[in-house]
# Entry
Amino acid sequence: MLITHDTRCALDTVVDLVNTAPDDDTTPDGLGSVPALDDFVRNHQISEVGVLSEFDLMAVRRVRGRFAEVFAASDARSAAMIINELVAAAGTTPRLTDHDGYDWHMHYFAPGASVADHLAADCGMALAFFVVAGEQERLRRCEAPDCRRAFVDLSRNRSRRYCDSRTCGNRLHVAAYRARRKEATG
# Structure
């Protein structure tokens, strides 16, 4: 599957956005304030965003929740329905652009769109490409029992199970190894 630079950026953004949601009552919301949203926008180099407000924060949290539903969708039809609703509500307006030193690429948000509509349009279209390509199963949640972070499995054989093999994957492999050693000696 060919993934263009702008699609990859949108995928990274949607994964990071979904992962800002608190896992439970003890985990803080990664988008707990307007300054946190401003940091998110700046860190992801989201272009054409004006001054952010509390209204923007609430709207982005709603979009984040809908994206989380896409990652939880049991089939392509369910994911497509959510994506279609997000993209339609955002007033998608495809256009070519070559800003900030990047070569020509697509933006799907309308000029002057809110940050929530911007995210819904660009990130929604990136997710739509996976559904269209029959690759919706690559939109996953970490299989570590104590982690439910979202990620996109871009491995060749669709075998990635953890959000990060150096943390979640390694931690589980070490625990399994220690359990085997304990059983063997024990």
